[in-house]
Amino acid sequence: MTKANIIQGIKEQQPDISYKVKEKTEFFTQLLFKCLFDKDASLEAGLTDLEHTFNELADIVCWNQAKNCHKIWEDYMQQLPEILKMLNMDAKSLDDNDPAALSVEEVYLCYPGFYATAVYRLSRPLFLKGFPLIPRLMTEYAHRITGVDIHPGADIGSSFFIDHATGIVIGETSVIKNNVRMYQGVTLGALYVTKSVKGTKRHPTVEDNVTIYANATILGGNTVIGANSIIGGNVWITSSVPPNSIAYHTPEIKIKPANSKENL
């Protein structure tokens, strides 16, 4: 097969996408962070760069020109101060609750859970506007960096605390209310995955002041974790938990006698 035939064979099957949208979205996300969290950055220049990058993305992804995706930017920019306010509350929650945090500055700079939450909060307004593809690319960028997979469709309240972070999955229709604390490996997922359930409430609701410990799995759109509850590590939950509950898994522990060669 000649090189020309190989090229033709690839072109005939190549999907109609521009890979540069992925790279530009990652650059857009980095610019957002620099504007919001770098006191030495020029906000005027940063917002100009953000608008320019956003317009480049809109030219690539806005397949429905009737939406006039370029106009989304003005509304999005107006929301940035409120998003930063929410992120400051998230950072304070981490600093207040994690004894390993030496300062809130450490949270901003070092904590993967904060980074993933920040990208989620910055992507969600674009998702709600129906801006194609970019919000998912933003959260997948954070997923790759932090190991935290938060769908931009999830509805997360204030003062959200993610500790250690790696392996957390929060599905598209999850609802997380205020002052929720979550540890590594937690999954808020669907009971089953099939295209027929698209557009339905598939993921759990977590009410105020709930703590969910490592590797807990909570599934189903009708599953509600009641306020002020504690969900222990490694539990599997597919039905609602009343408020003020403690749900935990009790392992069977066998103690091997000293100097015993017996296999347990």
Structure description:
With 264 residues, the chain is an alpha/beta fold. It has two domains: 18-147, serine acetyltransferase, domain 1 (Orthogonal Bundle), CATH 1.10.3130; 167-248, Hexapeptide repeat proteins (UDP N-Acetylglucosamine Acyltransferase, domain 1). It has helices at residues 3-13, 20-37, 43-61, 72-97, 104-110, 112-128, 134-146, and strands at residues 149-150, 155-156, 161-163, 169-170, 175-176, 181-183, 187-189, 205-206, 211-212, 217-219, 224-225, 230-231, 236-237, 246-247. The termini are far apart.
List keywords for this structure.
264 residues, alpha/beta, serine acetyltransferase, domain 1, UDP N-Acetylglucosamine Acyltransferase, domain 1, 2 domains, 5-stranded parallel β-sheet, 7 helices, 14 strands, globular
CATH architecture annotation of the largest domain? Orthogonal Bundle
Total DSSP E strands: 14
Instruction: Using the CA coordinates, give the radius of gyration.
Output: 22 Å
* Bulk shape: globular
Class computed from helices, strands and strand pairing:
alpha/beta
The average pLDDT is: 93
Reported for the largest beta sheet, the result is: 5 strands, parallel
Uncertain runs are none
CATH class of the largest domain: Mainly Alpha
Helix content: 40-55%
| CATH superfamily annotation of the largest domain | serine acetyltransferase, domain 1
* DSSP helical segment count: 7
Beta-strand fraction estimate:
5-15%
Through-space gap between termini: 61 Å
- CATH fold-type name of the largest domain: serine acetyltransferase, domain 1
The total tally of domains equals 2
Order of helices and strands: HHHHHHHEEEEEEEEEEEEEE
Order of strands across the biggest sheet? 1-4-7-10-13
